[in-house]
Amino acid sequence: MAGGHGRQGPTPPEPGAPEPETEPGAGTEPWAPYGPGQDRPRHDTRGIIGAAELFSRVRFRRRSAAQALRPYVEHYWLIDWELEEPYVSQVVPHPSVNIVFQRYGSGPPGAEVAGVGLGLFSITLEGTGRVCGIQFRPGGFRPFLSGQGRGTVAALTGRRQPLGEVFPSAGDGPATVLPPEEEDERVAALDGFLLGLGPAPDPAAERAMELAHRVRTDRGITRVEQLARDEGVSVRALQRLFASCVGVSPKWVILRYRIHEALEAAATRPGMDWARLAGELGYSDQAHLVRDFTGTVGVPPTDYARAVAHAGSYSRPGADPR
To answer: What residues are paired with 76 via a beta bridge?
Structure first.
C-alpha cells in the first residue's frame, strides 16, 4: 500500500499472505515471488507489521489479474472486516502504485490512486468495510498512466489522488467493483476496469519492472552501482529510469526491499544474528541496519522481534487506536 502519516482514512494496508482456500493450487513456498511469467501472487507477508493479528481481525485474499494484465499487475487484494472495536493496522509499503476502491460502513463508495508510500503507513479500521485494491508491479502503473491518465508516476509518490483526477475517463468504478458479494465477480470487475484503461506500450516501464524484480529477488544486489554495472548502464541512466517509471530511486527500492527482509526475519527467525543479517543485506555493519529499521518501523529490530515472539504480532507503540 501507499505509505503516509497515521490517519483514519480511505486507504487500508496492502495484504500479506493469501488465504489458501482462495488460491487453489497455489505454491507452498511462503517466500515465492510473483514475478514476470508467474501466474500466482506471492505468499509472503513482507511489509506488514503484526501480520498475524491483522489476519485474525480481517478477511483478505490475494487474487491474480487477467492474463493480459499480469505483466503490469502484481495482484489484486480484497479485504472485508466487521470489527467490534477499532484496530490500527500498519504497513511498510512496497515500491508500488495502488488503485484502491473502498467502502466504509454505510458511507458512499470511493476510489483513489495511491502513489508509492515513503514512510510507515498506519490506518484505523473500525466497524464494517470492504476494499478492493490493485497493486501494480514497480513500474507497471506507467503504461496505464501514459495511456489514458494525467500526470506522472513521480508526482504521485507519497500522495493519494481521487481516481477521477488521474483517469478522467475511468467512469464509476466503485459502483461496479464493490457491490458484488461473490469474490469472483469483484475480480472480474477489476479486470474489466483495467482492461478498459488500455495500457500503452512502454518499453522503459518494461525495463524498470524487470530491474525492480531483480532487486527484490536477488539479495546479492545491494548497491545501485553494482546493478548499473551488471546491466551495462550508467548510474544516472538507472536513476532516471526508476524516477520516471517507479517513482522512487533505485537506492530507495534496494533499501526498502532489504528492510522488508529484515522485518520478515525478525518475525520468523528466533535468535537472529543481526550482525550477520546486516552483512547479508549489504550493510556495512549492524548499526546501519538498526538505524534504517528503527527509522522505518519506529523501534529497533530486537524490540520488534521480542514483541512478535511474545504476542505473535506487533503494534507500534503510540499508535492511536481511534
So the answer is: 63, 134
Alpha carbon separation from 70 to 55, 66, 152, 173 (Å, rounded): 26, 6, 22, 20
Average pLDDT, the chain: 83
Cell output for 188: 472480474
Q: Which amino acid is at 104?
A: Y
Tell me the residue range of the domain where 174 lies: 20-197
Q: Are 211 and 204 in contact (CB under 8 A)?
A: no
Q: Can you tell me the distance from the alpha carbon of 315 to that of 49, in angstroms, rounded to the nearest whole number?
A: 7
Do 172 and 225 have their domain in common?
no
Is the pLDDT reported for residue 227 higher than 90? yes
Cβ-proximal residues to 213 (8 Å cutoff; 6+ apart), any chain: 33, 35, 36, 137, 138
Q: Which of 157, 179, 197 is the last residue of a domain?
A: 197
Quote the percentage of the chain above a pLDDT of 70: 84
Q: Determine the Cα angle at 212 with ends 289 and 151, to 5°.
A: 110
280 and 224, same structural domain?
yes
Q: Span 85-106, mean pLDDT?
A: 93
pLDDT band with cut points at 50, 70 and 90 for residue 198: confident
What is residue 314's three-state secondary structure?
Answer: coil
Split into its structural domains, the chain has a count of: 2
Specify the length of the chain in residues. Answer: 322
**Pair 183, 209 in one domain:** no
Domain shared by 148 and 262, yes or no: no
pLDDT above 60: residue 246: yes
pLDDT at residue 48 tops 70:
yes
**Spatial distance between the Cα atoms of 22 and 26, rounded to a whole number of angstroms:** 9
CA distances from 113 to 58, 182, 200, 263 (A): 23, 24, 18, 26
Q: Vertex 249, ends 290 and 283: CA angle to 5°?
A: 25
CATH of the domain at 246: 1.10.10.60
Question: Does some domain include residue 10?
Answer: no
* Whole-prediction pTM: 0.83
